[in-house]
Amino acid sequence: MAEQKKKKILFVMQLPPPVHGVSVMNKQIADSALINSELECHYINLATAKSINDLQKGAFRKYLLTLFIVCKTIFKMLGNRYDYVYITIFPFGFAFLKDSIIVLLARLFRLKPLLHLHTYGFKKASERASWRKKLYRFVFKNTEVICLSPLLIEDIEFIHTGKVFILPNGITQVNFKNDYSTDKTIIQFLYLSNLIKGKGILLVMDALELLKAKNLAFTCRVVGPEGDVDYATLKTVVQQKGLEKEVELVGPKFGEEKYAEFKQADVFLLPSDYDTFGLVLLEAMQFGVPCISTPMGGIPDVIGHGNGLIIPQINAQELALAMERLLLDPKERSRISASAFDHFKTNFTSPVFEQRLKNILSGMPDTVNTRLVSRG
User: Fold this and answer.
1) Cα–chain center distance at 254
2) 326: three-class secondary structure by DSSP
3) Which of 191-195, 343-347, 365-369 is least confident?
4) Is the model's pLDDT at 51 over the cut of 90?
5) pTM (two decimals)
6) What's the rounded mean pLDDT across residues 294-313?
């Protein structure tokens, strides 16, 4: 029997730098032995920013680089008949323009665009301007879509009809034994992410101030690169709130140093109104660290039932109540730790993610979670 021909995939996607959830997942695909052995993969790096702060800025260099990327994409499409053109599409600004150009090029060459949505905001943006809805519908026409969670389908159901694959993210497992302990007398909170207002860094400071007002003992480490909040500003906030003894501003950590932060943490905080999935939640869960987060995007599916706390409203009072609950209840922290660790191992490791993505790209619909969306 003749060997089945490999599916040919063109990946046009952002790779690091800068380091953020989308670029991290894209690099995992590019580095995947499974995907690259089972499929014929070609890659084009769509990134035009050098840092997190550069993502939302326009620059002449970006336009020139985009022109180069478009020319490279056309050259690839002229010389190859791809089964899918894989694009991690973003809903706003210059990033959406770049992504849309790639989608339209795929259509021009009669190739199938596969849009992987790592963020959301299509619904809200189109509600502000009717022309956006028409534009989105035009771009999404005759495409297939990957969503991180069933909870995110509603963001596109008014602009897309057809097949939607459900594919949660997964990360490389680096911790295989849950050594979480409740022996400490003073627990340590951890914020580890880019310092972005939307991710809740300032909300954390407000909640810590409320806990201190109740004379509760705790510490909190803030770890991550600067975003729209810098460490000088954050230091001033800490001083104004009288949290100098409780809060330590650490700076960015990577690799083993980052893992060490999770190992010594008692509760992880991501009070975000920004994230679609919260990749860093997976990192915390694999070390058995109980997480407190928000009902944004697919985060409730990430944490799941009983594997962490979801605050009902994104404000300092609700966050402080959840933090106080875990601070005062070591048995609950221990229970959540064990449950979260098992939840991670079952659902969110890189082998699980890569196998599911390979099945989607190989055209094996019976092996993945699929939805059909139709507008009424």
Assistant:
1) 17
2) helix
3) 365-369
4) no
5) 0.88
6) 95
The length of the chain is 376
Amino acid 62: pLDDT: 83
Contacts of 115 (CB under 8 A, 6+ apart): 87, 88, 89, 103, 140, 143, 144, 145, 146
CATH code, 323: 3.40.50.2000
Edge-to-edge strand list for the sheet holding 267-269: 247-251, 219-223, 188-192, 267-269, 291-293, 309-310
Provide φ and ψ at 317, rounded to 5°. -65, -45
Whole-number Å distance between alpha carbons of 162 and 315: 37
Residues 356 and 338 occupy one common structural domain: no
Map 200-253 to HEC letters.
CHHHHHHHHHHHHHCCCCCEEEEECCECCCCHHHHHHHHHHCCCCCCEEEEECC
**Sign of the CA dihedral 295, 299, 301, 305?**
negative
- Same domain (yes/no): 355, 327: no
- Please tell me the predicted confidence (pLDDT) of residue 376: 46
Residue 178 lies inside a defined structural domain of this protein: no
> Which range marks the domain in which residue 246 is found?
188-347
pLDDT at 47 (0 to 100): 85
Is 291 within a domain?
yes
Number of domains within the chain? 2
Neighbours of 294 (CB within 10 A): 24
Report the DSSP pairing between strands 369-373 and 162-166.
antiparallel
Taking CA atoms, 313 is separated from 295, 296, 321, 322, in Å, by 8, 10, 11, 11
Quick one: 282 and 218 in the same domain? yes
> Across residues 136-146, what is the average pLDDT?
96
The answer on pLDDT for 342 being more than 80 is yes
Residue written as tokens 């008014």?
A: 158
- Secondary structure class of 82 (helix, strand, coil): coil
